[in-house]
Amino acid sequence: MDNLTMARLLEQTADLLEIDGADGFRIRSYRNAAEAIAQTTADLAAICDDTAKLLEIPGIGKSMATNVKALVCTGTTPLRDQLLAKYTVSILELTRLPGMGPKTIALFWSAAQINSIDTLAVAIEAGKLADLPRMGAKQIEKIKKGIDDYRRSSGRFRIDQAQEAAEALTKYLLSFAGFDRVTPAGSLRRGRETAGDLDLLVTGPACQPDQTGPGVDYVAAYPGIADLIVKGENKVSFHLANGMQVDVRLLPGESYGAALQYFTGSKAHNVTLRQRALKMGYTLSEWSLARLDDESVVAAATEEEIYAALGMDWIPPELRENLGEIDAAVNRSLPRLIEERDIRGDVHMHTHETDGRNSIREMAEAAIACGYEYIAITDHSKALAMTNGLDEARALAHIQRIREVERELEGRVRIFTGIEVDILADGALDMDDEVLAQMDVVIASIHSRFDQSREETTARVLRAFENPNVRILGHPTGRQILRREPVALDMALILRRAAELGVAVEHNASPERLDLCDRDLRLAKELGCRIVINTDAHEIRTLGKMSFGVRQLRRAWLGPQDVLNTLPAAEFVSSLRTRPQTTA
Ligand code: DGT
Ligand code: CA
Ligand code: CA
Ligand code: ZN
């Protein structure tokens, strides 16, 4: 057990003691110890047999030293177990609601035996909190909203967080000679915008099914584990420090393909595929595709063999949502999906002239390193005061500098001039038309007044479209994944009008946004919209995040021909909306 896990468990014990009404001194001793253990550089697990050394750490007294030993040896302490037996572990979940401290939780527990978010929601519905002291209608409304927000985002993580966790774990696992392949499955492999938990499949000599270990022991020793949920014969589940659950499955190589197919999902895709297998006289499981009559294995080692035996093309994981991909694979008519290497330019990025971190030159050099043929520099406009947005004079000077840098780079990359101009509350643009007309790439975006009604926001965007300088609608819904809901918008109407006028709609590939979402991208294609994909990078590092967006385009069934910035530079500009006077 590492120090941070220990600190977390002691902190939890302090919360439980407070809920239990223990005296303040005792609660503080646990909190102080948790803080001390989180801060110390000594590895407590290594020195836990040496009481003198433990006592040297400020904040650790005799009884806390005993607790540390218990945590290292048993993963818990008698006091923690006793409190959890009384309240159950779900009561700690309540501390994740905004404004909900141990004192309030204690009140709810004593008044209505509330010990989880679910029981709290039920009690509110039943009106049980109304009579409690300091619980007005306003207070209760606040708690209800907290529960809604928590449930909406709860337990889910952005795809980049899931991927980062998968990469760290993969690196650790592959350091063992007994493992030779680690593959993410589940929602991460399908490229969904969020993941509920992380599923990893592992194979290699340490993964034989009939032996217990050493594979599972290697996994369970991962230093990132905050608490272990189960360690079975071929599966280890645990939480990371950020609360993300990870399921690692150890598999023999001969059934790796079947397992990968099964655990990639989605459930709906698997159900339909299994029905097809049954009709063909087969049974499909996580172990194999086998004949129903004599149970002989037809295919198991690779996904390709399984899909082929089912009479269909292999299906890219991003399409496995039971949205028509199975029929298409049977008919050999799956689309050729876009790939990251199809993209020739990134036309939405910021520099330190506004809220970016790097210069035009640095962004351009980084784009060259990404293999791009062109970029556009699109800083903010003045309405976004906190970004130091450009007014007309600065915007004109910025265009000149962009052109200078392009000349300095001597044809190594084309740099389009541009701006991300704010769509003001009434749909007007935050920059004079004469200035906008001098820029190649004018992206119009909403950054404020997210509270407007659906009618107001729709009219606002439609009005912005009427300005002939608008060539791209930036991050159309303004959503931030797990943080801010999309604005209310008549999306079909907006997309139809964009298609008529030739305004391209952006897919913002930043993993915090992924906006338009996969479903709306599919609609955009159906309605004949032009689509661009951009990173909206604010520093050179984030130029590399294009892949997260590409996976959303793939989920929308888009190919390279559906996306404008797969075109060479000259064709890219000429495929943007034509305006009265172009300067490109
Ligand atoms: P998530 O974790 O909520 O982001 O979504 P997934 O798709 O990763 O779901 P998860 O982790 O519950 O399961 C991973 C895959 O395993 C899932 O996509 C399909 C497969 N699977 C899991 N449980 C079942 C089941 O009960 N029936 C079927 N057919 N497939 C399952
Ligand atoms: Ca999952
Ligand atoms: Ca899972
Ligand atoms: Zn923006």
Automatic annotation (TrEMBL):
It catalyses: DNA(n) + a 2'-deoxyribonucleoside 5'-triphosphate = DNA(n+1) + diphosphate; a 5'-end 2'-deoxyribose-2'-deoxyribonucleotide-DNA = (2E,4S)-4-hydroxypenten-2-al-5-phosphate + a 5'-end 5'-phospho-2'-deoxyribonucleoside-DNA + H(+); 2'-deoxyribonucleotide-(2'-deoxyribose 5'-phosphate)-2'-deoxyribonucleotide-DNA = a 3'-end 2'-deoxyribonucleotide-(2,3-dehydro-2,3-deoxyribose 5'-phosphate)-DNA + a 5'-end 5'-phospho-2'-deoxyribonucleoside-DNA + H(+). InterPro entries: DNA-dir_DNA_pol_X, DNA_pol_lamdba_lyase_dom_sf, DNA_Pol_thumb_sf, DNA_pol_X, DNA_pol_X_beta-like, HHH_MUS81, Hlx-hairpin-Hlx_DNA-bd_motif, NT_sf. The keyword Zinc does not apply. It comes from the Bacteria. Keywords: DNA damage, DNA repair, DNA replication, DNA synthesis, DNA-directed DNA polymerase, Exonuclease, Hydrolase, Methylation, Nuclease, Nucleotidyltransferase, Sodium, Transferase, Ubl conjugation. It holds the Pfam family DNA_pol_B_thumb. One of its GO terms (molecular function) is phosphoric ester hydrolase activity. Residues 345-425 form the Polymerase/histidinol phosphatase N-terminal domain. Coiled coil: none annotated. SUPFAM superfamilies: DNA polymerase beta, N-terminal domain-like, Nucleotidyltransferase, PHP domain-like. Transmembrane segments: none annotated. Residues 52-71, 92-111, 127-146 form the Helix-hairpin-helix DNA-binding motif class domain. Its cofactor is Mg(2+). It is found in: Cytoplasm. Residues 1-321 form the DNA-directed DNA polymerase X domain. The keyword Plastid does not apply. Repair polymerase that plays a key role in base-excision repair. During this process, the damaged base is excised by specific DNA glycosylases, the DNA backbone is nicked at the abasic site by an apurinic/apyrimidic (AP) endonuclease, and POLB removes 5'-deoxyribose-phosphate from the preincised AP site acting as a 5'-deoxyribose-phosphate lyase (5'-dRP lyase); through its DNA polymerase activity, it adds one nucleotide to the 3' end of the arising single-nucleotide gap. NCBIfam families: PRK08609.1. This is DNA polymerase beta. The lineage of its organism: Bacteria, Pseudomonadati, Acidobacteriota, Terriglobia, Terriglobales. The gene is polX.
